[in-house]
TrEMBL record:
It holds the Pfam family MaoC_dehydratas. It comes from the Bacteria. It comes from Mucilaginibacter terrae. Residues 32-125 form the MaoC-like domain. InterPro entries: HotDog_dom_sf (IPR029069), MaoC-like_dom (IPR002539), MCH/BMMD (IPR052342). This is Acyl dehydratase.
Amino acid sequence: MQTTNQSNAEKSFDPNDFLIVPARSFEDLQVGEIFRAPSRTLTDAHSAAFQTVSCDNHPVHYDNVWAQKHGHKAPVVHGLQVLAFTAPGATMFPHVIGEVFIAFTELNCKFLKEVNSGDTLYPAIRIISLTPQGATGIVETEATIHNQNGELVLTGTHKYLLKTAAN
């Protein structure tokens, strides 16, 4: 009897039952939808890890004396590290688009304020345009990061290529 139960369980298994949210199509997305990432407080360890990976050894990122001598209140977190907090995978966006995702095709950003160890970042991406192109479509999002003081520290855009229903 246990063998029969196991085979029934195996027959009823569907990986789609394990999706975090129901996957949607390109056509189901709406301009204005916002996907937020959890807040993160940066530490010196985060900066040291990024410095190791990026090989960026400029003293503005690790030397407190040098940073203050050059007008910074403390060592500055690497800009590309801050940008990485806009990664769509940190939000629900990849789960929402499911299998229609083809590629992350473009990004740009502006660094508006410096970020230091101890700052808490609040990233979000918001759909600003949906451009169908036959079998594919372009989703453009505005990427923003605010700090714990509500100050906008980064803004930019991302573009993603998705399959459409015509595909």
